Amino acid sequence: MIRLSNVTWRYGSPTRRAAVGRGTDAATALSSVTFSVPQGGFRWLLGPSGAGKSSLLRLLHLEALPQSGELEILGTHVGVDVKRATLARLRQRVGMVHQDFRLMPTLSISDNVALPLRLERRDEAAVADEVAAILRWVGLSERSDALPAELSGGEQQRAAIARAVIARPGVVLADEPTNALEESQSSRIVGMLREVSTLGATVIVATHNDALVRRFPAPALRLERGRLTSDESNAP
Amino acid sequence: MSEAKGRRRDGLALSRALPDRSLLAMVAAMSLLASLTYAGAVGARALSSRWAAGAANLVTVQVPDPEKPAADTTAGSATSMGEATAHKDGASDASSAQTAQFPASQPEKQSGSKTAATPDMTRATAIEAVLQASPDTQLVHRLNASEIDRLLAPWLGAAGASALPLPAVIEVHLSRGAALSTNVIASIAQIAPGSLIERNDEWRVRLLDIARSLLACAALAILLVGTIGAAVIAMATRLGLGARRESIEILHGLGAVDGYVASRFARRVAGLSLAGGVVGTLLALPPLAGIARLMAPLSGGGALTFGSGETGFSIAETMTAFATLCGETPPALLWGLGVVPFAAAFIGWITAQVMVRVWLRRLP
Ligand SMILES: Nc1ncnc2c1ncn2[C@@H]1O[C@H](COP(=O)(O)OP(=O)(O)O)[C@@H](O)[C@H]1O
Ligand SMILES: [Mg+2]
Fold first, then answer.
1. What is the pTM (predicted TM-score) of this model?
2. Which of A32, B139, B148, B350 has the most CB atoms in a 10 Å sphere around its CB?
3. CB distance A213 to A207 below 8 Å
């Protein structure tokens, strides 16, 4: 469950001490954004380049806090007074697939994918089983010992998805996950993300690939210059 | 195994990110410096306390024309003998004990008299005898030819001074706090007019001043080395952190709490610093052991070992003090040296903790 109400966020003042309630200006990435996504829902996040899609996902991943408005993720209210430990715990329950993957360059694929479980201090036998299963699901069983740099873009993308979902988070966010991929790869990745949402996670996927959206019809949030112009929340 | 596992688990792969060997080498160098500085400080303190304790309550008597018979002067001066006798009578018990140590080659003592100097002695031996007889003296030593040569070598060169008409130099070690009595001084003047009696009090005061400034320098050096060491570790940590910035951001994004990330980084840095500290301290041991071994032969005798003729008196004095220090302080010194690696590790740990936490604080 994700709920935003009148969320405004601008660059340049990323701390919680940021000024509140100033008018929209050039650095404002999001202004008065209001929407909600129920648990297990799937949403496309659409809009031209520079519309604020990445900014919104970063906010939902708690890489920044809203300067004004209300933000609620998985039942936790995220305000300026939220504790760091609460944010950390919440981040463990929000899986994020970054546009640039953010795999650790010095760790093998299986160690990268295992990170969320190891941060939860799961015991190693369970970690090994889970990693093997998830790598099989994304089709990377053969590449588990490779370093990220030794993988193709599509393989790195799938590794990033595997890491984002391995700990069964309540929210999964993906920023342009099909950007540099060919059609068959793109379809495969979107298929995986849809599968994650049917398993109960709230999923938001940013893209500007219209063909893909047509092939996988789902409600869409449309951003334009930081403002939400359309919210198909009432759609199934 | 557990190291590899730990590295894997922390996800930071710090061993690749940190400039391992350079951090280790830098910490080792700082620890070597710190160890040597510390040893120097301990040495300086032991020396100064030794000097302060009055171990060198030393009087030097220079006797011109030492081989002239003492009789020449004593015969012409009844007063002198009288005074000497009076003094001897005053301290009869102590002096008689010491008189017994006189060389057997003095058979012609005046009967019944306990006078130390006899007319058939040379001036030097007569004065030696007077000094021996004094209750305040602990040790009387006349420098032999080679000792004088060594003493004069800086001025006269290696050729030696045997050809010159030199005064005899007699070293007198007095009991703590004691001074030569006026009687003894008068006797010396009677036996060999023109003798120089030199107390080294001012010299001791100056030595103490030197020791004190040495101590201050050592303390300053330790402070500096500690500060620079901390700065070096901090800079290396900063470098490593900068290189791992992305990884730390990723971990943060995956929900790792600050304390977890900081402790991983700090543990790694502390481990490296500990290893560097051990290496540096071990490197400091051979030179310290070498010095200790040099001192070893000297550390046995509490009294000075002039008989061997191997050492000049002031050097011997210093060496003895140092030897005593080495004999007395190994536990303290070893304790201090043992602390160095742990101090390095702690500095590394605390620096990494603070830096990582400060850095993570910039992220929400
Ligand atoms: N790090 C940043 N600092 C300042 N402004 C930024 C930064 N990142 C993005 N922006 C601005 O925020 C707005 C939204 O950017 P972004 O969220 O990346 O859009 P999108 O992902 O939809 O392309 C843009 O105007 C962009 O220029
Ligand atoms: Mg973007």
1. 0.66
2. B148
3. yes
Interface membership of A85 toward B (CB under 8 Å): yes
pLDDT for B206 beyond 80: no
Question: Hey, what's the torsion of the CAs at B75, B77, B78, B84, to 10 degrees?
Answer: -100
Q: Where are the beta strands (DSSP E) in chain B?
A: 58-63, 137-142, 168-174, 196-199
Residue A188 three-state SS? helix
Taking residues B136-152, what's their average pLDDT? Answer: 81
| pLDDT at B194 exceeding the cut of 70 | yes
Closest chain A C-alpha to B242 CA, distance in angstroms: 15
**What is the helix (H) or strand (E) element at residue A70, kind and residue range?**
strand A68-73
Per-residue pLDDT, A70: 92
Q: How many CB pairs under 8 A join A and B?
A: 65
**SS3 category, A132:** helix
Residue A15, chain B, CB below 8 Å: the answer is: yes
Chain A residues in contact with B362 by the CB 8 A cut-off are 15
Q: Give CA–CA dist B203/B314, Å, rounded.
A: 11
User: Could you tell me if B299 and B327 are in contact, meaning their C-beta atoms sit under 8 angstroms apart?
Assistant: yes
Q: What is the dihedral of CA B89, B91, B94, B99, to 10 degrees?
A: -40
pLDDT for A108-131, tens place per residue? 999 999 999 988 888 889 999 999
Residues with CB under 6 A from ligand 1: A 11, 27, 29, 47, 49-55
Nearest 10 degrees: CA dihedral of B114, B117, B121, B124? Answer: 150
In the reported structure, the alpha carbon of residue B205 is separated from the centroid of ligand 2 by a whole-number distance in angstroms of: 79
Domain boundaries, given as residue ranges, for chain B:
3-52+206-360, 65-194
Residue B89 scores a pLDDT above 80: no
Contacts for A218-222: CB closer than 8 Å, 24+ residues apart? A218/A42, A218/A43, A218/A44, A218/A194, A219/A41, A219/A42, A219/A43, A219/A44, A220/A43, A220/A44, A220/A45, A220/A46, A221/A35, A221/A43, A221/A44, A221/A45, A221/A46, A222/A46, A222/A47
Structure tokens at B41: 């400080």
Among chain A residues, the shortest Cα distance to B248 is held by: A104
The reply to whether residue B11 touches residue A107, judged by beta carbons under 8 angstroms, is yes
Indicate yes or no: CB of B255 within 8 angstroms of CB of A119: yes
